[in-house]
Amino acid sequence: MKLALRQGQFPRDRAGRSNRSRRAWLAAALALLAALCLLSVAVGTRQVGWVDIVSALRGQVATIEQAAVAVRIPRTLLAVLAGSALGLAGAVMQGVTRNPLADPGILGVNLGASLAVVVGVAWFGVTSADAYIWTAIVGAALSAVFVYVIGSLGRGGATPLKLALAGVATSVAFASFVTAVILPRTDIAGGIQSWRVGGVGGATFDATLEAAPFLAAGLLLSLSSARRLNSLALGDEMAAGLGERVALARATAALGAVLLCGATTAVCGPIGFVGLVVPHLCRQLVGVDHRWLLPFSTIGGACLLVAADVVGRIAARPSELEVGVVTAFIGAPFFIWMVRHQRSRQL
Fold first, then answer.
1. Which residue from 25, 93, 208, 284 has the fewest beta carbons nearer than 10 Å?
2. Which comes out higher in pLDDT, residue 32 or 7?
């Protein structure tokens, strides 16, 4: 047992979950994601059959149906990548802060990235996708540091409730700043307002490829932090006693989450609540061991965002609801339930 703790592992979950049952859930999650991806390319304002889907996957666009599928493929890919990034970032943030209410949206990270992008576009003429992403990452990092510092002030340090309140207050302030920046700029207001809702419509392979290296770096940093997050879950003093460099462990994991949030926000806009809902649901399936929780949150986030995109297309035909709106409908009641029933306990 001591050896397992020293390695940052949990030999067996308190609820009796075994690695065998976790592998079964993993296979089920992957099967669900594959089914949702097929549904995503098939469902929309125009229904298409399997023959057209197969033809479009082969690169054929001879019919309207095949052309519709060709447009939905990059959209589905972006939904998978963005959902994976947000689900994983949420799990990492909850582990780093030991805060069950941690989420890129609630902690103000998404709005920080949004404000940075809007300022870059309005004041500095940022236009390239690469510059968008770097600007969003810097904004996300500064916002995360700011919220953590504010939440750490006073007695008791960075408690879950103080971090949540600091994040919500920061998000409101940043949203007001964004509005103040774009109001005088009618030339960019329409595009920025549409982007701020958060969505994957209009996705292209080129934009997704621009974000892919940043998402890959964030994914590797986050997944490689699983053992260190297990140590941090025992408390800073215990983690240090086991030989963990606490500050470095937190900084590495947080950097991975910032890369994921910044790149996703630059491409899709701010999408909230995925990083809050998914890790909690995954924790019910696989327990608190981050070696399992992080991969499951990655897959779960992809499932949630792809499903939200499909629901958005069906619910408002012939128009669409952006995924940011759908996830807000799901996440807001979940957040209220968390506050009322979990009482903001630490992890």
1. 284
2. 32
